[in-house]
Amino acid sequence: MASKVTSALTAIAVFYLALAAILYVAQGPLLYPAPRSIGPTTGGFEEVSYATSDGLELSAGYRAAEPGFPTIVYFHGNGADWVSSVVATDRLVPEGYGVLAAEYRGYRGNPGSPNEEGLYRDGRAAIGFLKREGVETENLVLIGNSIGSGVAVQMASEFRPGALVLISPFASLRQLVGEKFRWLPTGLLLRDGYENAAKLDAVEAPVLILHGTADTLIPHDHAEQLASLRSDAELRIFEGYGHDLAWHDVAEEAVLDFIARQLGKETL
C-alpha cells in the first residue's frame, strides 16, 4: 500500500514539475503569440522605421497630427500588430489626432524576439522617432491595450506625456498569471512581470483606465486595482464588453472625451 502511495505521489510530482518546465520554456510563444500572417497596411498611414538602442530596425505605422493636435502612441496587445492599432483609432484620426501605431520586435516581420525589456526598448525608440519628427513628449497621448498597457505605463513613468490611457490592462502580469495558475510557482517561473501597479504612482500625466465586465482574459478588477492607486485616475467600466473593448466605439468615444477635457485641443 505504501509503495502505491509513493508511486502516486511520485507521478504527481513528475507531472507538476513537467508542467512547470513547459510553462518556463514555452512562456515566450505563450506571452507573445505574434500573428503569423501579415495583412496589408491601412490607407492614410505610412510605414516608417526606427532603430532601437540594441540595434534593431523596427517598422511601424504613422500618420502625422493636424496642426494643434496631439499625437497618440498606441501600444497594441500581444496577439495583434500595428494595423490593429489603426483600427482602434479610426474615430480619433478624423478629429485631427496623429497616431504612431508602434510595433514590437518579432512582430509583423520585425527582427528580434519579444520580451519585457525588449518591448521597453521598442517603446523608447518609438518616442524617439516622434521627437525627431518634432513632436514633444508633452504633446503625446500614450495608449496601451492589454499587454501594451505594460509598455505604456513604463514609457509614461520615464517620459512626461500629456496623458496615459490604459485599455483592458492588468495590475501586473505576474499577478494575473498567478491568479490563473495558483498551483504553480509562477512568480519564480515568469521572466516578464510588467508591474503596472508598482509603477503607476511615478506617472505624472492624467490617467484614464477602461475595462469591460465580460473580459475573461484579464478580469476588470485589475483595472479597479490600478485606479485605486491614483485618486485622480478616471475609471470607466463597460458592462458586457470583453477583451476586445479597444475596437469598440465606446472605448474610442471615452478616449476622445478624455483627451478633449484633459489636454484641451485648442491649446496644443
For this entry, give a set of tags.
single chain; 9 helices; 16% strand; alpha/beta; 8-stranded mixed beta sheet; 268 residues
Describe this structure in words.
The protein is α/β, with parallel strands linked by helices and 268 residues long. Helices cover 38% and strands 16% of the residues. The chain has helices at 2-31, 82-87, 116-132, 148-158, 173-180, 186-189, 196-199, 221-228, 249-262; strands spanning 46-51, 57-63, 71-75, 98-101, 140-145, 163-167, 207-212, 234-238. Strands 1-2-4-3-5-6-7-8 form an eight-stranded mixed β-sheet, sandwiched between helices. Helix 4 (148-158) links the parallel strand 5 and strand 6. The radius of gyration is 20 Å and the shape is globular. The protein starts with a helix and ends in a 6-residue tail after the last helix.
Short structural description:
The chain is an alpha/beta fold and about 270 residues long.
List the SSEs and their pairings.
Layout: H1 2-31, E1 46-51, E2 57-63, E3 71-75, H2 82-87, E4 98-101, H3 116-132, E5 140-145, H4 148-158, E6 163-167, H5 173-180, H6 186-189, H7 196-199, E7 207-212, H8 221-228, E8 234-238, H9 249-262
Helix pairs in contact: 3-4
Number of helices: 9
Give the helix proportion (percent range): 25-40%
How many strands appear in the DSSP assignment? 8
Adjacency order of strands in the biggest sheet? 1-2-4-3-5-6-7-8
Span between N and C termini?
78 Å
* Helix-strand topology string: HEEEHEHEHEHHHEHEH
Report low-confidence residues grouped into runs of 5 or more.
Answer: none
Strand residue percentage: 15-25%
Any idea what the shape is? globular
Give the overall average pLDDT.
88
Biggest β-sheet description: 8 strands, mixed
